Amino acid sequence: MEAPRKGEEEPDEPVWVVVLVKGFEAAKQRLSPALDPPSRRSLAADNARLALRAAEAGDHVLAVCGSREAAELARAQGAEVLLESSPAGQNPAARLGLEHAASRGAGAVVLLSSDLPLVTAGDLAGMIEAGRRLGSPAVLAAAASGRGGTNALYMCPPSVVDLHFGDASLEKFARDASERRVRFQLFDSPSLALDLDEPSDLEELRAIR
Hints:
Elements: E1 15-21, H1 37-54, E2 60-65, H2 68-76, E3 80-83, H3 90-103, E4 108-113, H4 121-134, E5 138-143, E6 150-156, H5 169-179, E7 183-186, H6 190-193, H7 199-208
Parallel strand pairs: 1-2, 1-4, 2-3, 5-7
Antiparallel strand pairs: 4-6, 5-6
């Protein structure tokens, strides 16, 4: 590769967006008071399509999928696909994606939930730009609304901190980054904040739309 000439900026390293897509057959159980199983399955598939389209803001889209149906949907959207042999939750899925992206030369990775009904490519482009401004090493997190969770996570380089998705994950990511002396910032985005976990989330979505 030719070195940049004097006065020229080095090109940004590639940013992969890794979309974590659970299997649709058992998706959204906590929405069962408001939606029947076919409706929950359809909602999960629709949100996965939104996330995969938004992920095109990155340099490469990788979908880590928990079922063959989810994998087929992701391939139809043009994503590279990793099918989990034994789905065991968000953190193992994220780790699988991070390791693959790093082995293929990703300079940074955005881990993205597939449960975000308002996400757009503009949201992801803004997050990637903000992450690049932080330099390396750095972590940029988009919080889940009101729950202490994390809906999107920019990591440069990949695996710069451990994975803590689940209860109070935002605090855990921040603490991990601090202990490793890694820059950590929050990315404020209402579109990335709303995920669909509870019936009240559906009510909030209907109010917005």
